[in-house]
Amino acid sequence: MCRENCTFIEILRSVIIQNIRAITEQIIAAAHHANRNPSDITLIAVTKTHPPDVIMQAVAAGLHHLGENRVQEADEKITALAAERARLRWHLIGHLQSNKAKRAAHLFDMIHSLDSVALAERLNRHRAALEAVPPLPVLLQVNISGEDTKEGFAMRPDPTSARLDAFVQAVAAIAALPALDVQGLMTIAPYSDEPEQARPVFAALRTLRDQLRQHCPNLALPHLSMGMTNDFTVAIEEGATFVRVGRAIFGERPPLH
Question: Which domains does the chain have, with CATH numbers?
């Protein structure tokens, strides 16, 4: 039994290593195509539904940035992988419910899905209550595509001046919260088998970030979190600093029980 399990783990590790190598080569190629430094792009392994023993194979292969969609699932995995905590960076990439803000403020190294001033204020309050911790890095989720199923600040490409002004005010209010550190924007493009379909969404997020820099010159906003398995190379060409990849690393997700 042990031999069979060890063989399975060895095969799994080999597959994950090969997948990561292929993704890394694509990241490098996309960065060079856009005249960017590949080291400016961080690969986040999306570990949703994958158990700790599978995640550890990616960690062993050199990935230290892990992305989870749900606070409770992340809590269980962070606990299970506590021995590795010092070298791991946990990212919340899914929607954050306000009643999970307290736990999220404690668990994560970065939250990509902050989508309202009210949620930011709650998160700030819980983060400030923790002892000896720095401000929590956050990204503001923006719904560029306008899909009803997407969370985030509603900002279609070429937003009206009134909508842009309202967003700038919201960003300024969040940036003023002392226990949060606003570092950029995040978006999710509509799913498509054709990566080029996502390019206008990614380009619009980059443009929005550049507009924010003009309105809020005290904010560097270095990060854009955009791009997943189907479209991360296009996202890199449009300025992504974080790409969130799950299926191309781990294969299809196991079903939820």
Answer: 2-250 (3.20.20.10)
pLDDT per residue as tens digits for the range 9-47: 788 889 999 999 999 999 999 999 999 999 999 999 999
| Contact (Cβ atoms closer than 8 angstroms) between residue 67 and residue 229 | no
* Residue 46 DSSP class: E
**Are 45 and 88 in contact, with CB atoms under 8 Å apart?**
no
Which DSSP string corresponds to 211-239? HHHHH-TT----EEE---TTTHHHHHHTT
pLDDT higher than threshold 60 for residue 3: no
- Of 221, 202, 173, 187, the C-alpha closest to 112 is 187
Query: pLDDT per residue over 89-125, tens digit each?
Result: 999 999 999 999 999 999 999 999 999 999 999 999 9
